[in-house]
Design a protein that fits this description.
2 copies of one chain form a homodimer.
Chain A: E1 2-6, H1 7-17, E2 32-38, E3 41-47, E4 51-58, E5 60-63, E6 66-70, H2 71-80, E7 85-91, E8 94-98, E9 102-107, E10 124-129, H3 130-140, E11 155-161, E12 164-170, E13 174-182, E14 188-192, H4 193-203, E15 209-214, E16 218-223, E17 226-231, E18 250-255, H5 256-268, E19 276-282, E20 287-294, E21 298-305, E22 307-309, E23 312-317, H6 318-327, E24 332-337, E25 344-348, E26 351-358
Antiparallel strand pairs in A: 1-5, 1-7, 2-3, 2-6, 3-4, 4-17, 7-8, 8-9, 10-15, 11-12, 11-14, 12-13, 13-26, 15-16, 16-17, 18-22, 18-24, 19-20, 19-23, 20-21, 24-25, 25-26
């Protein structure tokens, strides 16, 4: 292997790939990234066996070849170099890396030891605008579970329903649903939320269409020069639609920053009670108030002006409420609920394509 | 106690004071800050028994009094509030805190349980410009030891020598000395470096004179409305002047950012060898090169253009070199040394009031 690449391209590729490499794996080669010439491009790949990311960059290839090198060292090294042309040359398992002022040799491991990336070329194929996918994932992954005892809840459920594609996640304490695009495909995919965090990282600056290919076991997301493959989660997703309230007895619309502030302040006094805060609506006063009590420390009540219809109160976990408020983007938020035992629902006041449901706590 | 203060003043005071409060202390009251009316001001004080910080803010005092409240909760709460007037009212040990939209009650502990701040009013007194003290401390604290086995090395040595005040710190592996101001006082003070970190935080936006008062055991730094008192370290400081080389056989002057870059890159390959890198000067080529070897990972050599007189090489700990480069402020740096067994000295190329000495490693 002998080739030249630019520092910018190589450091960008390493930044998207190196993060899935894992130095704590029992398989030492998984701490490495695979460098491999593919025509006049260099492919840089990393995997933790669940997720595989491959990034292709333009390259002047003088001699074909492949090698794996420690992901972390390579990333730290290349990103520290000044903007320049970098020469890579392989001599047995030693990769020589040269620029004008810097020369390094990194001891690699044979490319043959690196797990082969799964091939899912024979799957179903469709496209989705990168911007829409990105904003949907940003808004739903927060509600996915990190607890492996119920694997289906650790996924983001991408599925079609009456000709519309939805992204959903729920850990059974809260639920987030985003309406994506109209589609003619029959889609039912349960994608690990951890892989979606990696995909979000890759999509940061990406605005074009994302190509999706999937079979029963795996799914490929292709965003320009970057490909992410992940396993799908088996099992059937809960019938979440029946959990979403359709009508509400009490409703408050207010500035999102104000609801965030009063919730944050109240949460300081809710540390002893596992984040429990009680929100009350007073239609006459046009006021939403939040109350929390810490028997040791003291208590707090905060209020904010709001457009209110109906009266009532509900007790919520302030962490879940703050997580939700954090992924909305609009200026005004509507918080709706029925009684103390029913979930609260959050909408953007001017845009109904995203909703976030938070289950109540006993108070 | 009944009074009013502004959110801005109170949150600024808590930010300077709360950090010395310690929730892990065996004395629970040390996790609190003391609120106490003093004439028409409110004093907010915190201490860990080694260091005490007191911040005075203007206040409309309706009723005198004193109470201690949990430092962390109070700080988080007050800094989260919008800019406004805050009313504080004490009812037994409950502190009621009110603004227009927020009401809290914090359970306090009696002010009588709070340790009395030491009084050192009868000590020697002198002044120093805040800016000079701040830049001196920033440049020397990094070289102080964090290892308590030799307590004198955990201090910053403020002392006069032939009519000039110096600040010095050394952990025996490196040494930093800053020339401060001319003085007629006989000064010999060994101040804990940890207290100097707190002082730096307090001095962030402070440009006026700092008033210093000290006796044999303690020292007070007074910066406007904030006072910091700390114990002094006992013991005699090593005769460090004989460790500073006076003449050099080899010398390189180059851009500080360039020396930082090549050192950083080389340090990536020096992880196995405890940060050991070898710097070589080549007068003919006008080049400083840095080399490091990691037997497992590979090796690196980097170079930078430099104005050089003399040839030679020296092996240093890259962490110490980076720490030093980080506290210089000028654009150009001069690195000088004699042989492999003598220390390297760093100067700002255009300003000799600060020097940093790094001991060599065996290579």
């Amino acid at each position: 292997m002998k080739l030249q690449v630019t520092q910018e391209n190589l450091s960008k590729a390493l930044n998207s790939v190196a993060k899935v490499a894992n130095t704590r794996s029992t398989l030492p080669v998984l701490a490495n990234v695979l460098f491999k010439t593919v025509g006049n491009r260099l492919s840089i790949a990393g995997t933790n066996l669940d997720i595989a990311i491959t990034h292709y960059i333009g390259s002047k290839v003088m001699e074909e070849g492949a090698i794996t090198v420690p992901a972390r060292l390579m990333q730290d090294f290349i990103t520290s170099l000044p903007s320049s042309v970098i020469s890579l040359e392989l001599d047995e398992n030693k990769l020589h890396i040269k620029t004008d002022k810097y020369q390094s040799t990194i001891n690699g491991m044979s490319a043959e030891d690196f797990p082969v990336m799964p091939d899912i070329s024979k799957g179903t194929e469709w496209n989705i605008p990168g911007k829409a996918l990105k904003s949907a994932l940003q808004q739903v992954v927060v509600a996915a579970s990190t607890n492996e005892t119920r694997p289906v809840l650790t996924g983001v459920f991408l599925h079609s329903h009456e000709g519309v594609l939805y992204a959903v996640a729920t850990d059974s304490y809260r639920l987030a649903e985003k309406t994506l695009i109209s589609t003619k495909e029959e889609i039912k995919l349960l994608v690990p939320a951890s892989a979606m965090h990696d995909l979000l990282r890759i999509l940061t600056d990406y605005e074009e269409d994302v190509q999706i290919v999937h079979n029963d076991q795996q799914i490929l997301f292709k965003a320009g020069d970057v490909e992410l493959v992940t396993r799908l989660i088996e099992g059937s997703y809960p019938d979440y639609r029946k959990l979403i309230p359709k009508e509400f007895k009490a409703k408050a619309t207010l500035k999102r920053t104000e609801l965030t502030n009063v919730t944050k302040v109240s949460s300081l006094f809710a540390r002893e009670s596992a984040g429990s805060i009680t929100i009350s609506l007073d239609e006459k006063k046009g006021e939403l108030s939040v109350r929390s009590i810490a028997s040791q420390l003291g208590e707090n009540s905060s209020s904010a002006d709001a457009k209110i219809s109906g009266n009532g109160s509900i007790t919520l976990n302030s962490k879940y409420l703050l997580d939700a408020l954090n992924v909305f983007s609009g200026d005004n938020i509507t918080l709706s609920f029925n009684g103390k035992l029913d979930p609260a629902t959050l909408f953007d006041a001017d845009n109904k394509d995203y909703l976030h449901v938070v289950m109540p706590l006993k108070s």
